[in-house]
Amino acid sequence: MTTLHALVTGANRGLGAALAEALLSRDATVALGLRQPTDEDGCRSLLRRHGNRGLIVRLDYADPDSIDEAARRCEGELERIDLLVNCGAVNRDPSSPPTASKGPLEQLDGAALTRMFVVNVVGPTLTCRAFLPLLKRSAAGQIANISTGRASLGLVEDGRSMGYAVTKAALNMATRKMAAELAPAGVTVTAIDPGWVATRMGGPEAPSSAEETARHLVELLLDGERRPSGEFVDRHGRRVPW
Description:
Blueprint: E1 5-9, H1 14-25, E2 29-34, H2 40-49, E3 54-58, H3 64-77, E4 83-86, H4 99-102, H5 110-136, E5 142-146, H6 162-182, E6 188-193, E7 197-198, E8 208-209, H7 210-221, E9 232-234
Parallel strand pairs: 1-2, 1-4, 2-3, 4-5, 5-6, 6-9, 7-8
Helix pairs in contact: 1-7, 3-5, 5-6
């Protein structure tokens, strides 16, 4: 059986780390994308537990040069990428008060919203662009953009988390656009709502652990049956309203 080659961004903690471990447990070779070099120790430990079957690359969504350098590094060490998981994200602008990007409307700040757009939309899109040559070398390349139910226009019930919801809705549109463009190359692109997960972002009161959620996501992505490209689904593969 051919070894799966994957890239997971935001792999230093939370859902990204759990996804990387779940993939490594399936004998995949995984490139772990980190925003900061200071996060390397945990990732090195993770790779050691799985026979050092992978590599660590610096990949900061707010730094296009780091994205391109990560792609060059992977091209030098991996023959292809079968699965790219865009997991890194922010649910608020960390350099501003929470209300500057979450709302209410009268407290929103344009610079804070712009920084969120760079991290949650521009960065993942440029990552897909940079790794496209490696994805095209796969017999069945997949891109999974981790989204949120808050990005669903059909499920809006309140005005909370304005920046997170709006930027992830934009990532959903990017998913649809990329799915249409990459269909002739055989690369599928899917937006996935993982649900409410007990991570630093989701908080300790969330009902699902990162490990449980990662297990469901990996089962969904590696079930051997190619999903129609351009879908928005939950971690069980059920469609989420756009």
